[in-house]
Amino acid sequence: MEKIYLDNGATSFPKPKEVVDAVYEYMTSVGVNINRGGYQSAYDVASTVLETREMLCKMFNGKDCRNVAFTKNITESLNIVLKGFLKPGDHILCSSIEHNAVMRPLVQLAKTGVEFDRIPANERGEMDVDAIEGLIKPNTVAIVCTHASNVFGTLNPIDKIGEIAHQHSLKFFVDTAQTAGILPINMQEMHIDALCFTGHKSLLGPQGIGGFILDDDMVKKLDPLITGGTGSISHTEDTPEFMPDRFEAGTMNLPGILGLNAGLKWLEEKGLDNVLSGELELTQQFIDGLKPLIDAGKIKLYGMPGIKGRVGVVSIQTTEVDLAEAAFNLDLEYGIMTRVGMHCAPYAHQVLGSYPTGTIRFSFGNFNTREDVDAAIKALTEICNN
After folding, report:
1. What is the DSSP letter of 210?
2. Is 245's pLDDT higher than 80?
3. 218: which DSSP letter?
4. Which of 265, 310, 336, 344 satisfies CB 3.0 to 4.6 Å to 304 for a cystine?
């Protein structure tokens, strides 16, 4: 049975051949470290790492490619930003549809005296932007939010949120896990002070690579979470104050960065507009195909009713069939791979009313086809009608 992968919100698959080739070439023919080795192959890899920083800085319109720091994933990036910036007595606002990559650090920080409040959202996950100013306190220092929900795909209006943060002299941190590589994001126009990204989703790199991009003013305002060897100023035991070394202690994931480099080039050639239009076309096809089941009350659709204001992430409940059983049968009987459960975002499910059951999530990617979507609709129809 041929498998159909519809879990691109977790990680994109398959990767472009160029990504696989870049990782394989490094692992089999290069294999060196950078910032340590005094030989040409190390310098060549260092040049590719710099090129990757430059491409990311250009993609998100950051101010300086040196302010691109690599981590192992976006969770680490968000921890570095939140824990490095927030101090006891500070107050921060977050959206009501955050992933645990934001919420668990905030809950942990709350035990040290940091306060947070959630900006309310409606049952579709749409943020009440007008409520933000009423939640700002004298000790509010920042706003953090995801660009799009990993549960149901609803977009947060980060341009409007960034403008409000700017007007009130608040820092603005954005989680782009579900949008980097799909939607255009402009750090300067959107007043983003720290943009966190992951490489293995729509940026098409391998797992184990992520990072963040800082505005110049943020560099000295963040205390490094992890310190150690950087290969620079090795005559001292003090942590470097300059970027990116300030936040890149230890051996880098060079296979991951080189794979990400290839993924970025693939995206640049295809164009973000084409990526977004392709995913939304499949999303619309999927939602339209489920309409008979939705009208019959056999499936409940969460989030936006169409493709406006969302990305290619769709969550449903099978009202007459146990969710876990339905997801298991989708894979076992039809070869369709999805994700079922809470998706690491329990409060988002409370906002939508899908807590504590959770949902089955379908997330579309660059290499899915209309035939894949038809197969998923057919499978759900048979499962729900049996």
Report:
1. E
2. yes
3. G
4. 310
Distance between CA 25 and CA 48 in Å, rounded? Answer: 13
Segment 255-272 shows an average pLDDT of 97
Asked if 366 and 278 touch (Cβ cutoff 8 Å), the reply is: yes
Number of other CB atoms surrounding residue 10 within 10 Å? 16
**What's the one-letter identity of residue 349?**
H
Q: For residue range 123-159, what is the model confidence (pLDDT) as tens digits?
A: 999 999 999 999 999 999 999 999 999 999 999 999 9
What is the residue type of 174?
V
**Which residue ranges form the domains of the chain, and what is each CATH number?**
4-13+272-385 (3.90.1150.10), 17-270 (3.40.640.10)
What is the helix, strand, coil percentage profile of the chain, to 5? 40, 15, 40
List beta partners, residue 214.
Answer: 194
The single residue listed with the structure tokens 């619309």 is 284
Reported as a single tens digit per residue, the pLDDT across 95-133 is 999 999 999 999 999 999 999 999 999 999 999 999 999
Strand blocks (E) in 319-368:
336-337, 339-341, 359-363
pLDDT tens track for 219-228: 999 999 999 9
Q: What is the dihedral of CA 132, 63, 71, 364, to 10 degrees?
A: 70
DSSP string spanning 69-116? EEESSHHHHHHHHHHHH--TT-EEEEETT--HHHHHHHHHHHTTT-EE
Q: What is the rounded CA–CA span in Å between residue 377 and residue 386?
A: 14
Alpha carbon distance 345, 99 (integer Å): 5
Going 198 to 203 to 204 to 205, the CA torsion angle's sign is negative
How many Å apart are CA 203 and CA 74, to the nearest integer? 12
